[in-house]
Amino acid sequence: MPSANTALFGLLTVFLFSLTLVESAASPAEHRKLCTVHACRDGSDDAPAVLRAFEECGNHGRVEFLNETYHIESIMNISGLNDVEIDLKGTLLWGTNISYWLNNSMPMGYQNQSTAWILGGDRISFQGHGYGTIDGNGQVWYDFIKGASNYPRRPHAITVYGTTNSIFEGLRFVQSQMWTMTVIHSSNVLLQDIYVSSTSNSSTSTANTDGCDTIYADNITFHRWEVHNGDDGISPKANSTNILVTNSTFVGGAGLALGSIGQYNGVFETIENFTAKDCTFVNTTHAAYLKTWTGEQVGYPPNGGGGGIGYIKNVLLSNFTLQNVKLPMSFTQCINFAGASGNCNSSLFSISNVSFLDIKGTAQQEPIVSLQCSAAAPCVNTTVEDVSELALRNGTLMKGYNCDHTMGTVGFNCTGHTCGTASGDGTC
Ligand SMILES: *[C@@H]1O[C@H](CO)[C@@H](O)[C@H](O)[C@H]1NC(C)=O
Ligand SMILES: *[C@@H]1O[C@H](CO)[C@@H](O)[C@H](O)[C@H]1NC(C)=O
Ligand SMILES: *[C@@H]1O[C@H](CO)[C@@H](O)[C@H](O)[C@H]1NC(C)=O
Ligand SMILES: *[C@@H]1O[C@H](CO)[C@@H](O)[C@H](O)[C@H]1NC(C)=O
Ligand SMILES: *[C@@H]1O[C@H](CO)[C@@H](O)[C@H](O)[C@H]1NC(C)=O
Ligand SMILES: *[C@@H]1O[C@H](CO)[C@@H](O)[C@H](O)[C@H]1NC(C)=O
Ligand SMILES: *[C@@H]1O[C@H](CO)[C@@H](O)[C@H](O)[C@H]1NC(C)=O
Ligand SMILES: *[C@@H]1O[C@H](CO)[C@@H](O)[C@H](O)[C@H]1NC(C)=O
Ligand SMILES: *[C@@H]1O[C@H](CO)[C@@H](O)[C@H](O)[C@H]1NC(C)=O
Ligand SMILES: *[C@@H]1O[C@H](CO)[C@@H](O)[C@H](O)[C@H]1NC(C)=O
Ligand SMILES: *[C@@H]1O[C@H](CO)[C@@H](O)[C@H](O)[C@H]1NC(C)=O
Ligand SMILES: *[C@@H]1O[C@H](CO)[C@@H](O)[C@H](O)[C@H]1NC(C)=O
């Protein structure tokens, strides 16, 4: 390499970033500042350059990533953005220094969980064109935690925090370190054409690799997600209101999971107005899973807790196609410390107005639904209709409805009882 180039390369490496300032020629109304982030050629940490780009262009600007691989070796807290376009044409690849992340991952605002990346602001438009990729390099984490639930400080891939009036589109999330995405303290966010895949190539599990969780979030819309993972697909948790999921496919994992909720003793939390329609579930444990903690607190979050109050109400689940799903719809109110079964009858958390309509395809075993509701707060008004095309894999039409403590069933009569344990998959 000629010495001038070497010197230039050295300079770029020292500054770790290169920002270009241009005025948009397209429209005089759009005087957006453009920051293009260039990856360090030597594979060193690109996070400082990314942070600089957002400092420079995070207000009425545009941050562009080229078709390159950017190495993210340190935490990024990118907050308070205002009217910014993010254009990802390449890959953000997270580093695998486990001790670094365990020491530095940031609190994400719930359950003592931690994150590698916080992104937030008003009017964010994050475009990935169907190929822009966020790669958590998660295999090292799947192997490291050896199946432990909620391993302390294990980082989530991205936390969309304090975000309003924003759109995330055409992004691919692969091999997330833990939960892929959480949308928290946010409202009016549209997330569409998103691909998520976290699968282990070793014998270790991909537990806790949720697709997207919503927490303290209102009016969040998911169109055309495809999620391959080992845990909750899309999961509204504490204070999730007006959440819509359409035209999405879930492979492996738990399916749609409402909760778990009710983990904080005496704390009032809700999930209200959750609608999912036109979705496909392949090899998932459930299409829909509603789970609350027991009435007694045992231990502390993230792996312990219980005694929470509040409600899940107005849930509409319709037009689902199932392939080889274990148990189409399950309620359990027995979630207890680290998954151990607790008292299934003590939860005061109430579940009402849940409808499961127009469900077809195949499941592994009876029943169609297992509604394990707490004696202390029976489930009110559960509807199951248009499931006559739901069959076992050998073609036998399904007919079982297992229930405990349901008040008001529409479209079906209970045919048996649930296992009465936290085993949400219906296996007694
Ligand atoms: C990105 O670059 C790689 C080669 O470096 C190329 O194969 C690929 O098609 C490019 N992707 C896009 C979307 O331009
Ligand atoms: C990993 O990060 C720690 C800081 O947490 C640092 O001391 C160590 O040198 C890093 N290891 C490598 C291989 O970069
Ligand atoms: C992220 O940055 C914002 C704005 O500077 C700050 O208020 C917040 O506390 C930071 N979050 C974390 C977890 O460091
Ligand atoms: C909900 O969010 C969408 C953006 O996804 C927005 O267009 C719509 O106006 C919001 N609805 C309400 C009631 O704020
Ligand atoms: C969902 O799929 C249906 C049928 O293919 C289509 O009519 C509808 O426009 C789609 N909606 C969205 C939001 O993708
Ligand atoms: C959750 O929602 C409940 C009911 O609306 C409200 O009382 C509580 O303050 C909310 N919690 C948070 C942290 O926003
Ligand atoms: C739930 O939807 C109903 C009907 O659209 C609406 O009246 C109610 O305000 C919504 N609840 C919340 C918490 O937004
Ligand atoms: C049901 O969902 C499928 C996609 O899974 C879609 O193609 C079909 O149009 C939907 N049916 C209705 C009646 O909306
Ligand atoms: C679903 O599971 C079956 C049986 O284990 C397997 O053959 C099939 O490839 C799986 N489908 C997907 C999309 O992973
Ligand atoms: C029962 O649930 C259905 C569907 O969620 C709703 O339309 C109906 O109003 C509910 N009935 C009562 C009494 O709340
Ligand atoms: C189909 O499978 C179910 C459950 O394994 C079994 O009970 C039933 O007898 C089978 N039906 C036929 C026709 O083989
Ligand atoms: C439920 O049982 C009642 C009483 O036997 C019967 O009248 C009703 O038709 C049954 N409903 C369904 C959906 O099978």
Q: Tell me what portion of residues adopts beta-strand conformation.
A: over 45%
CATH-scheme architecture of the largest domain: 3 Solenoid
The low-confidence runs, each spanning 5 or more residues with pLDDT under 50, are 1-28
**Helix/strand/pairing category:** mainly beta
The unique ligands bound to this protein are:
2-acetamido-2-deoxy-beta-D-glucopyranose
Mean pLDDT: 92
> Looking at CATH, which topology of the largest domain would you report?
Pectate Lyase C-like
Number of domains: 2
Key features?
19-stranded parallel sheet; signal; disordered N terminus; globular; 27 strands; single chain; 5-stranded parallel sheet; binds 2-acetamido-2-deoxy-beta-D-glucopyranose; 428 residues; 4 helices; Pectate Lyase C-like; Pectin_lyase_fold/virulence; mainly beta; 2 domains
What does this structure look like?
It is globular, with a radius of gyration of 23 Å. By secondary structure, it is mostly beta strands. The protein folds into two domains: 1-253, 3 Solenoid (Pectate Lyase C-like); 280-428, no CATH class. The chain has helices at residues 3-15, 47-57, 98-104, 139-145, and strands at residues 33-37, 61-65, 69-72, 76-88, 91-94, 106-107, 114-115, 117-135, 155-156, 158-161, 164-174, 181-197, 212-229, 234-236, 240-246, 249-252, 256-261, 268-282, 288-293, 309-325, 329-335, 350-363, 369-372, 379-385, 390-392, 401-404, 406-410. The strands form three sheets. The protein has a 19-stranded parallel sheet that branches. The chain has a five-stranded parallel sheet with strand order 17-19-21-23-26, with no helix packed on it. Bound molecules: 2-acetamido-2-deoxy-beta-D-glucopyranose (12 copies). Residues 188, 190, 219, 221 line the site of one 2-acetamido-2-deoxy-beta-D-glucopyranose (NAG). One 2-acetamido-2-deoxy-beta-D-glucopyranose binds at residues 97, 99-100, 103. It comes from Lachnellula occidentalis.
